[in-house]
Amino acid sequence: MLIYLVTVLACVSMQFQLFIPGKNWRLSLAELVSFLENRGIKFAMCSLSKEFFVVSTEEKVGASIIDDLGGTIKIGVSAADFSTEIVRSAFVQKDKEAQAQIVRDIVASGLVDEMFKSESERTLFGVSVYCAEKQLRSVYKVIQRFIGSSIKRELAGYGKKSKFMGFAKDRKLPQLSHIEVLKKNLVENKAEILFCVGREQTFVATTIAVHNPFEFQKRDVGKPVQRKIFAIPPRLARIMVNLAVCTKGKVVLDPFCGVGTILQEALLAKSKAIGVDINRWCVEATMRNLEWLKDEYALENAEYRVLQGDVHKLSQKIGWEQVDCIATEPDLGPALRQIPTTSYAVRIAEKLEPLYYGLLEEAYKVLKSGGRLVLVSPYIKARSGNPVTMGIEKKAVAIGFERVYPFKRGFFAEDAAVPENLISMASLIDAEERHKIGREIHVFQK
Ligand SMILES: C[S@@+](CC[C@H](N)C(=O)[O-])C[C@H]1O[C@@H](n2cnc3c(N)ncnc32)[C@H](O)[C@@H]1O
Q1: pLDDT digits (tens, 9 = 90+) for 141-171
Q2: 261 lines ligand 1 (CB under 6 A)
Q3: Same structural domain, 337 and 249
Q4: 207 and 288 inside one domain
Q5: Domain around 99
Q6: Residues 154, 303: one domain?
Q7: Any atom of ligand 1 within 6 Å of the Cβ of 256
Q8: How far apart are CA 19 and CA 330, in angstroms?
Q9: Do 146 and 288 reside in the same domain of the chain?
Q10: pLDDT confidence of 58, banded at 50, 70, 90?
């Protein structure tokens, strides 16, 4: 029986932190709550939308956690919040008093004072608007220009010259990319303002951290041995490591290690890594990649070993109850040129069953009690429109695993509007438009 100790914090008189998720917001949210929970950080998710999450924590969460998360693009600290009703009056009804009130709130929040401290002669700053409220999306470019011009005027009042980063007309969303924020040093200069319009409440925040895509890219295409078709993206690998609670000192196993992408992320999370693959070439590739990672990231104390072996004999190779967590992606089926018929998709899934069932049985043996298994299985799109998935849960439960639901009610503040289908969601789907076979991500616990 799994017991969860989550204290629900109220979302009042606390510092709000804003998290801007990647494209797959459910995956980003699942990673974030797992990360916070398993580090013993007391938190409440106060508001959520696919554009941003508002989290209140008892203690401040450091900006550096951005490097530990695969699914978060920006982190901001809220300096002011007000009812979204005011934003609606200001920009839909064009009420001048409401507009003035918003400017007064931003000025009183001290955000502009922070920019005033910048040493450069001309402060460069940007405003990104994230909007969870459909009705306001039609005016969010207007909002962005209004906030930018107001801040510029305010800075001029202090005798400070500034340059407001405008956007080309064809930019779809009035948001700076993380790359722009990085290149213009906006984090260091506290010079990106996040204006996050929620359904009830609007938050004005300063960006304190942005995702560094160059680091993840380096681990993807900069490592010595690559294998494009089968390899998992490093950001997803990091999310899986976090869902599996592979934290400092824990022993992590990837029994289908390929070229070692998941193990790289596990080592960066300061876990000890064990890789297994049936293919000798993969074993050598993983060894080379992990050696490279150790040098590149100065991980002097990194501990890892990579073995050749078949998943069906995993417990003979590793021993019983030896590992704290498993994060893995077995074969997902053949490369498809077109979306298959349902019957072909079912055949693909059936053919993979022995491999997956073998993994579940052996994973249960090698895991320590309480250890987690994070497993990707295929999510096969079919011409009927109904994807075909594998009956992983039934088998896993029969062996003794319990499914870990990614979103527990206790993660959310009592008054937060949480979609019911989120709480009942058993697995996470990662399937882009272009993929014929996407990923279904499961979390199980022994
Ligand atoms: C989808 S790939 C894993 C990719 C890996 N996550 C990466 O980023 O490189 C699946 C791997 O499982 C290995 N494999 C297939 N059958 C296996 C088995 N029975 N036991 C162990 N490994 C196996 C393959 O050699 C392949 O490298």
Answers
A1: 899 999 999 999 988 888 888 999 988 888 8
A2: yes
A3: yes
A4: no
A5: 16-211
A6: no
A7: yes
A8: 31
A9: no
A10: confident
- Using one digit for the tens of pLDDT, what is the confidence trace for 67-96? 999 999 999 999 999 999 999 999 999 999
Which atom of ligand 1 is nearest the CA belonging to 330? 10
Q: Tell me, using a 6 A CB cutoff, whether residue 411 lines ligand 1.
A: no
In a domain, 9, yes or no: no
pTM here is 0.94
Which among 103, 104, 98 has a CA at the least distance from the CA of 86?
98
DSSP run (H or E) holding 308: strand 304-308
Total tally of structural domains belonging to the chain:
2
Residue type, 391: G
Tokens representing residue 358 in the block: 């073998």
Q: Give 303-330 pLDDT, tens digit per residue.
A: 999 999 999 999 999 999 999 999 999 9
46 lines ligand 1 (CB under 6 A): no
Distance CA 342, CA 346 (A): 6
Same domain as 116, residue 87? yes
3-class DSSP state for residue 316? helix
Q: Could you tell me if residue 4 is inside a domain?
A: no
User: What is the model's pLDDT at position 435?
Assistant: 87
CATH of the domain at 114: 3.30.2130.30
